[in-house]
Amino acid sequence: MEKSVIPNVTVLATGTDFATKQMQANAGEVMPLHHADQESMLFIYEGECILRINNKEIFLKSGEAATIPALVKHQIKAVSDYKGIHFMPKEIKFEFFK
Fold it and tell me: Which of 68, 66, 75 is closest to 39 using CA atoms?
């Protein structure tokens, strides 16, 4: 059974319109299913994870990135301990699902 957790998030920079946040999780942890009201991008710089989106699993490893469309439910599973940078509009709003 997968362990659902909110990843550790650290704000790295905030500008007028955009924010960058570091997120990290340990191997086997899964972020709860959620979506956001605006598009964002996730860049993995350490470790590996799976982005579950649109009924597909996208494997991301260090040096790879993915675009996450607005209002599309998704979740991230840590394959190994990972760290990533999430680039997003400053006013983005998230909704979590059970």
Answer: 68
Distance CA 16, CA 55 (A): 34
Global confidence as pTM: 0.91
What would the pLDDT profile of 33-91 be if each residue is shown by its tens digit? Answer: 999 999 999 999 999 999 999 989 999 999 999 999 999 999 999 999 999 999 999 99
Print the domain residue range for 34. 13-92
Residue 3 lies in a domain: no
Tell me, what CATH number does 84's domain have? 2.60.120.10
Task: Please check whether residue 60 is in contact with residue 33, taking contact to mean a CB–CB distance below 8 angstroms.
Answer: no
